Amino acid sequence: MHGRIVITTSDAPDTADPSARDARDEAQRLVEGRFTARVLEPSPPAVDDEWFADDPTDPAGAEHPVVGPTSAADLTWTAWVRDYPDQAAWAADRWLGAYRTLGPPPPTLPETRLALHRLAVYVLSPARRRSTGKIALRWTLDGFGTPFFGDDEQVRVAGTELIRQSRGTAVSAPLTSLNAAAAFALDGPPDVEWAAGFDVPPPGDLDEALPVDPGAVAWLGDWYGFSYSVLEELRSEDASVDASRVQLWVEHFDCAFECLPEDEGRRAGFGMSPGDDGIPEPYLYVVPWAFDRVPASDLWNAIGFRGAALRFSEIAEARDQRGAALDFLRARRSLLAG
User: Fold this and answer.
1) Residue 140: in which H helix or E strand, if any?
2) What is the pTM of this model?
3) Which end of the chain, N or C, is less surrounded by CB atoms within 10 Å?
């Protein structure tokens, strides 16, 4: 591997370079032994189950009351921060509580989004796929990346850096071309064949510098953190029966999960996209699997697909953007549930 070496472990002091991350352990040390911490980011160890990924909100194995990112926890991080206000910025950065308000997306977002989508398809997803057969990604601090796999390995984007981590040690390199990124993360060329059957952007010039604007990368990282905070809360609620996991799907570069019974024609995907050809700006959506069987309603307002959409610009000025997003998704879930 080539790149600037940065070394940390879960036992490193707080002044250590944070490039190597164990997000759950970091939170656990913060709350000491009073709570069992749960966070939104992927955390080691690598999991060998049907998902090959940790569940960020699962209370299983908790030895103490759980402090977590959803209302299903014994204590939310938002409530915890009220007692520890000096940690509000820490919680906000990780989309656990003390939530930030997202400003308007920068004009460079579409170009940066496309470049990072290509990186996700041809470099990050293959890094996970060759180990577990799985292709989906997750939100990670300041960006996105894989869950942990193999020997507690992870590949992720943090700002304009690509980070490769294994057993608490990380190396990083600046984002340049797809060829350079693949040499760093895959020890070989980009995998341009595996996604041939998917509707994904073409790889393009493998040696061309990826046009990533730092401001747009930062906004996209926050959008995915915002999305995970919203969707994990929705998933954790009792009304979201038969829920799948929230995943960052490499095909459309959006975060989504499914819930509600399929055999009754009520199952639907609930997601948040950073924008695409159909709706250029970031948006929320609900897509019923069997649209012909769902109750008719003006709540199904999407143009271009059968479902519902809420553009970010429609909630950008809301005092509680997260609450507005949840209201939109819950109303459609309630209609589908009957």
Assistant:
1) strand 138-140
2) 0.94
3) C
